[in-house]
Specification:
- The protein is α+β, with helices and mostly antiparallel strands.
- It has one domain.
- It has 7 helices and 7 strands; from the N terminus they run βαβααββββαααβα.
- The strands form 2 sheets. It has a 4-stranded antiparallel beta sheet with strand order 1-3-6-7. Strands 2-5-4 form a 3-stranded antiparallel beta sheet.
- Helix 3 crosses helix 4.
- The longest helix is centred in the middle third of the chain and has 20 residues.
- The protein is globular and about 45 Å long.
- The two termini are 29 Å apart.
- The C terminus is likely disordered.
Length: 169
């Protein structure tokens, strides 16, 4: 079965819930797509950089929705990925039919206690492109890299113990 790597923006609370139960409702995700490669001016040989781009764009989308940056990275069956016209298609946006806990590879989130108030207020309800242009969001993305967490740490995301165990990537 062919699998796809997807970057799924979530709230911290949703990510913690995913530790015990799958997401069964369709949701927004991001992936390395031809549109994303074109938007970032990347060639097909720049897969790692494109994955990083999809991660950052997913985090900005999450910031616009929940006021926080948390992205679950998963390898899902290709059949669960809807690549037709979706929200944020030009930024690698795809639809995701469901997400099983066992498909989660890792997660990324801001360090616990980081004040996101200014960036969250500047981006609330915007699309990724508009949010990206906000100076407060640029400062957040540039100055505060998301911390990597192993899939086994989902239940701890956003809590002090998780923030100290993940490495910054």
């Amino acid at each position: 079965m062919q699998r796809s790597l997807v970057f799924v923006p979530t709230s911290l609370e949703e990510a913690r819930q995913l530790a015990g139960a799958p997401f069964t409702e369709p949701r927004q995700a991001f992936a390395v797509t031809p549109d994303l490669l074109a938007a970032l001016d990347f060639g097909p040989d720049q897969g790692e950089e494109a994955e990083r781009g999809a991660l950052v764009l997913a985090s900005v989308w999450g910031l616009t929705q929940w006021g926080e940056r948390c992205v679950v990275v998963a390898e899902v069956p290709e059949a669960d990925v809807d690549r037709t016209e979706q929200h944020e298609t030009g930024n690698g946006g795809v639809g995701l039919a469901r997400l099983d806990t066992g498909s989660v590879v890792s997660a990324y989130a801001d360090e616990a206690g980081l004040d996101l108030t200014t960036a969250a207020a500047a981006s609330r309800g915007l699309d990724v492109d508009a949010a990206w242009d906000a100076p407060q969001v640029q400062a957040l993305v540039t100055e505060h890299h998301l911390l990597w967490h192993d899939a086994s740490e989902l239940a701890l995301l956003g809590r002090e113990s998780a923030a100290t165990s993940g490495g910054g990537h």
